[in-house]
Amino acid sequence: MSARILDGKSLAAELRAEIAADAAAFRAAHGRAPGLGVILVGDDPASRSYVTSKQKACAAAGIQSREIALPATASQAEILAAVRQLNEDEATDGVLVQLPLPDSTMEADVLAAVDPAKDVDGFHALNIGRLVQGKPALAPCTPCGVLELLRRVGIPLAGANVVVIGRSQIVGRPLSILLSQKGTDATVTLCHTRTRDLPQHTRAADIVIVAAGRPNTLTANMVKPGAVVVDVGVNRVPDASRASGYRLVGDVDFAAVAARASAITPVPGGVGPLTVAMLLRNTLTAARARLTLPS
């Protein structure tokens, strides 16, 4: 068996074109573009690269982006002041705090300070609570990207046995909620580092989604023939043949699993581009919702 490669890059391009058309309609109707505000603390190269890619995606989709850059030495009070500034800015519909912060102990308080109506990362407790209740909410971008991918490529979800490996608040937990909601109706098993006999669970799955943050978490002998595999992981591994000295791999032993699965996402080029597309869609959703909120 040779797996179908699920090309997230091309799907994200289609989605971003749809978002650009909707953003243009929003601008024509309301006299301004939807706006995303980003707070970047420190000069971490990876964080700067992520922010730049998001800003380019916003520009291509007709979404206005604004950045507040703070030094790595910024206090929690200074970061919270930046959050308040964007919360109160009428031209900013979405607020994103680029993680990780230099001092990770600040993250919970900083994320809690973001206006839930502008929480385009979907990390605020109010949005997570609404998600659990099955109510409309801004949901985390990567889980939304995974769901969008599966739907757009026609993978049946209703009644499917899905194993999600990883229980982070950013991917695993919210993804398990989205998959099991009415209207999607998957049967979900959430696995993690304390799961006993992980292969027993994955071999029974129609769909395996891996978000563990560790290369080769899923190997070929853990996958039943014909399963669908979604690799959310992005890991750097040493590679002397590359100018950078490393290459990017996922959490799945790609070549071996691809020979056994019916469909699989690559890394890079799988879920990652859809995560950015979902950020754009959340920004547009927030902009539309804010117009209907009571003043």
What's the CATH topology name of the largest domain? Rossmann fold
Strand order of the largest sheet: 1-11-8-7-5-6
Task: Tell me the name of the CATH homologous superfamily of the largest domain.
Answer: NAD(P)-binding Rossmann-like Domain
Helix fraction bin? 40-55%
What series of H and E elements makes up the topology?
EHEHEHEHHHEHEHEEEEHEH
**CATH class category label of the largest domain:** Alpha Beta
Q: Can you tell me the CATH architecture of the largest domain?
A: 3-Layer(aba) Sandwich
Distance between the termini: 58 Å
- Proportion of residues in extended strands: 15-25%
The rounded Rg comes to: 19 Å
Structurally, the number of domains stands at: 2
> What is the arithmetic mean of pLDDT?
95
Secondary-structure content class: alpha/beta
Weakly predicted, low-confidence segments: none
Shape: globular
